[in-house]
Amino acid sequence: MPRTPIAVPTFAEMLDPSRIDPEIRRKALAAKSADPLDPINLFNITWRDSDGQVTHMVLPKELTGVDAEIVVIYGKEFPTGSHKVGATYSVLIEQLVRGQVEAGKHTVVWPSTGNYGIGGAWVGGRMGFDSVVVLPEEMSAERFEMIKSFGSSIIATPGCESNVKEIYDKCHELSGAGPETVRIMNQFERFGNYRFHSTVTGPSVAALVKELGEKGVGKGKASAFVSAMGSSGTIGAGDALKLLWPDHKIVGLEPIQCPTLYMNGYGGHDIQGIGDKHVTWIHNVMNMDAMMCIDDMESKLGLQMLVEAPGHEALMAAGVSADTVQKLASIVGISGVCNILGAIKTARHYGFGKDDVVVTVCTDNIARYHSVMKNLTESHGVMDRSVADHRLEGIFHGQKTDWIQEGTQEVRRRWHNLKYFTWVEQQGKSVAELDALKSQELWAREREYVRETDRLIEEYRKG
After folding, report:
1. pLDDT, tens digit, for every residue of 290-334?
2. What's the maximum distance between 2 C-alpha atoms anywhere in the chain?
3. CA 121, 124, 129: angle at the middle one, nearest 5?
4. Which spans in 97-236 are helix H?
5. N- to C-terminal Cα separation, the chain
6. Is 116 part of a structural domain of the chain?
7. Which residues span the domain enclosing 256?
């Protein structure tokens, strides 16, 4: 029986949705709110809104306390409310068009600490696959609820955000029990994740920064891209920016409570979505300029300040407009606040001024963390106006330039060598494969891979 064509976007269309067939684009935009589970929403996997603008916010200096322009791109407008859906789609489509997975035959497994699993549950279902999400049992209740709402099965493994080995162990168990039918969509290893960000997110940021420069925000270039690492897909956007601007800084963030790259550290933490206690295979550490650590409690307390009424009052008293306060409250989650604090730290560390633009990412938003905020109130008491004022000054304006490690060549090699213990000793990679990751030529080839994938996608759409 001939295969029924499935409407799926190319990487080029995710980067620039004006390339999408106008009728498909119209249907996708209409379905975004009317029918979020319609597969046509796959064409809404893009950083650009219905007007073709990259979803972003230039943060008010009354919040950041620095002269540099800090710009956040945010994932709230993606299907599922997080840009991680782009990584899950990219990982799956690359294998689908090459005949490595098949709906109805294979079950796809999404190892995750949250947003990737949510994205996998949504993407897998829209593309006709049975999905299983494997994630730590201590992740927020909202994460589990969203995964279930998209029709995926869930396996909860022991531990918190940083307990990734337990996820790997469960995935090995699943693939061993069903080698013919189970396919692991490992975000920490699959270059499709990196490719989405290096060929879609990075160029989207570049276009945005140039547009902002024309409006008087910065000088048309990004001085730094700042991102916490979970799977390390998002930070791959920095590779595209450094190709445009060789002096561009790529800055990675980790929790102080789990400083793996910073000092071979370990530990539990609660910046959900980052700090997974290992160096991922797809992290181009040899191209990273600095590693900085952010406190998980400051990230949570800062989030509460940004999303609750006393914090809104404090911001407006500092001179931030009510509209800006409301928009900011709608786009931030815990990791987003972590990234904002890292961007402030980056601006201070490098002495960036008013002509510099520092770009970072708000991966998801408060919808995933109401339970976390409830627990925070129970443990720390109600946040009143005076507490909110203190958090604005202490957490945002008072962000220090400590816990910073420059990416010298020696330090980069040390970051790279840490991959050995997870990927060679535990996950079956060879030393030759590991050593190959040191070369920027390899990463350039990985980015070029999307050209062939787009050709195969176009063939696939024909049936």
Report:
1. 999 999 999 999 999 999 999 999 999 999 999 999 999 999 999
2. 68
3. 125
4. 115-126, 141-149, 164-177, 191-196, 202-214
5. 11
6. no
7. 56-78+195-410
Asked whether residue 83 is assigned to any structural domain, the reply reads: no
Signed CA dihedral, 439, 91, 178, 153: sign only = positive
**DSSP tag of 5:** P
CB 372 within 8 A of CB 378: no
Query: What is the per-residue pLDDT across 18-65, written as a single tens digit (0 to 9) for each?
Result: 999 999 999 999 999 999 999 999 999 999 999 999 999 999 999 999
Tokens read off for 236: 């791959």
Cα separation, 291 vs 345, in Å, equals: 11
| CATH classification of the domain holding 264 | 3.40.50.1100
Q: Which backbone phi and psi does 384 adopt, to 5 degrees?
A: -100, -175
Is residue 448 in some structural domain? no
Q: Kindly report the CA angle at 423 between 299 and 279, in degrees rounded to 5? A: 20
Full-prediction pTM beyond 0.90? yes
Name the domain boundary from 394, 410, 426: 410
* Amino acid sitting at position 170: K
The secondary structure element, H or E, covering residue 138 is none
- Per-residue buried b or exposed e for 284-312, using 16+ beta carbons within 10 Å of the residue's own CB: bbbbbbbbbbbbbbbbbbbbbbbbbebbb
* Dist CA 427 CA 278 (whole Å): 12
Contact yes or no for 227/254 (Cβ under 8 A): no
Residue with tokens 């106006």: 385
User: Cα dihedral sign for 87, 435, 446, 426?
Assistant: negative
335, 298 Cβ separation under 8 angstroms: no
In the numeric block, which tokens belong to residue 7?
Answer: 């409407």
User: How many domains does the chain divide into?
Assistant: 2
Q: Does residue 183 form part of some domain?
A: no
